[in-house]
Design brief:
Layout: H1 3-9, E1 11-19, E2 21-26, E3 29-34, E4 38-41, E5 47-49, E6 57-64, H2 70-74, H3 81-90, E7 99-102, H4 108-123, H5 128-149, H6 158-169, H7 177-199, H8 204-216, H9 221-228, H10 238-247, H11 263-271, H12 284-307, H13 310-314, H14 318-321, H15 328-335, H16 348-357, H17 365-374, H18 376-381, H19 389-407, H20 409-412
Helix pairs in contact: 4-5, 6-8, 7-8, 7-12, 8-12, 10-11, 11-12, 15-16
Length: 415
């Protein structure tokens, strides 16, 4: 990498399409921009521009991180998609989305501001830098206002997504106990996904993205219940079914979020949220959200195990659920501090043990904190009355070990 390339790599970049059209590949996704559109890239963005025609003119502005000093950022609106993006890019804390794309081809105000910036640059008058800085602030503020007009400054409108989800639920019998259980669970996962993300001090966009994935993660469950009246994985892979429902030919996902920017991420997170082990995701931001939804799902399952009827969860009475011995294969998984394979569960008490053992598969210390604060492990383990002494002893051992495990997240929680 020569000096010019290095200098370019260390700068934040703004691309404004002056005229014509431009095809760009951004983070592996092809985007065709129109005259008047703007893209902003941080220093980690991977993007390429295809060769254009004679009338395709792209204005490229490179700005050092030093340009966006404290004084500059203090003059920007404190909240908004551009302010958050710049603040995280300058501090190098931005580890998720590395660009912003604004479809401003119908905004004459943006065009006028860009003309002023370009005129000042070529005029080279006294005070040029101060004047250009002011115009850049005006431009970024206008971009934030543009986004606000198109959806309160956000790509994701979680309130709208919830309204559409309620419409989808109208197709099912809300009086069915299992349907009701999954509706309550869905909103519980939304709550916990947002709480984990906020505890991790994620950007507003990632908080809302986590909540959207939480809202849609079990959308396949409702059809599984209608067809089979069962949660058993042998009847249907509800995660894969849900992903196909959202991202198949009918693109149901567009009912919940208008833009397709996050489609691949949402698809992967939902498709893999119930996998025994999370594998095959290489994009860092996608992997982060895939881990987050798995943790949020487990957190609300804590609540479910405490309030839902045993019969709705296990298909047997609460008294029957505590009968019998824990199967050897199930207990061996517990001793290895692993989740329990569905195929290894033979009797109702195995299912209950598997509900506890899943908390060996936690990804974030923030999730451990919530489990500890609510004393979920002890409370879940204590819900059933175990008839066999051997089962009571093993439940006590498992409970104590899980509580120790979750108290040392720096050692035990997966990177």
């Amino acid at each position: 990498m020569d000096r010019e390339e290095l200098d370019r790599y260390l700068r934040i970049e703004l691309c404004y399409l002056w005229s014509g059209s431009c095809s760009q590949t951004i983070e592996g996704k092809k985007i065709v921009t129109s005259e008047g559109d703007i893209c902003i890239f941080d220093t980690q963005a991977v993007h390429a521009i295809e060769a254009g025609g004679e009338n395709d003119i792209l204005v490229n502005i490179l700005m050092s991180r030093e340009f966006f000093d404290t004084a500059f950022l203090s003059r920007m609106p404190r909240q908004g998609i551009v302010s958050e993006f710049l603040a995280e890019s300058v501090t190098k804390s931005r580890k998720k989305k590395h660009y912003l794309y604004f479809k401003t081809h119908g905004n004459n105000r943006v065009g006028e501001i860009m003309e002023q910036i370009i005129s000042e640059y070529y005029a080279r008058d006294i005070g040029m830098e101060e004047v250009m800085e002011s115009y850049v602030i005006i431009l970024f503020t206008e971009l934030q206002n543009e986004q606000k007009k198109k959806g309160c400054g956000r790509m994701i409108d979680i309130a709208h997504a919830k309204q559409e989800f309620e419409k989808y639920l109208d197709e099912y019998d809300r009086q069915d106990e299992q349907i009701y259980l999954k509706i309550e669970h869905t909103y519980g996962v939304v709550k916990y996904a947002g709480e984990i993300a906020r505890r991790m001090e994620c950007s507003r966009e990632d908080v809302e993205l986590a909540e959207l994935i939480g809202l849609l993660h079990d959308i396949g469950r409702f059809e599984q219940i209608r067809r089979f009246h069962s949660f058993e994985p042998g009847t249907m892979d509800h995660a894969v079914f849900g992903a196909e429902l959202l991202f198949g030919e009918e693109k149901m996902i567009r009912r919940f979020v208008r833009e397709d920017l996050f489609d691949d991420l949402i698809n992967a997170a939902i498709r893999k949220h119930s996998d025994f082990k999370l594998e095959g995701i290489h994009d860092a931001r996608t992997l982060f959200h895939a881990k987050l939804i798995r943790d949020a799902d487990k957190l609300d399952n804590c609540r479910v195990k405490l309030v839902a009827s045993i019969e709705a969860m296990l298909g047997v009475s609460e008294e029957t659920a505590g009968e019998g011995l824990i199967s050897p294969a199930v207990w061996e998984s517990c001793l290895r501090r692993e989740s329990v394979l569905s195929a290894d569960r033979q009797v109702p008490v195995d299912y209950w043990v598997s509900y506890l053992a899943q908390y060996y598969d936690i990804n974030f210390p923030e999730t451990c904190e919530i489990i500890e604060e609510e004393d979920y492990i002890t409370r879940i383990a204590s819900r059933l009355t175990y008839k066999e002494q051997d089962t009571r002893d093993k439940i006590r051992i498992l409970t104590e070990d899980l509580n120790r495990y979750l108290e040392m997240p720096a050692v035990s929680v997966k990177e």
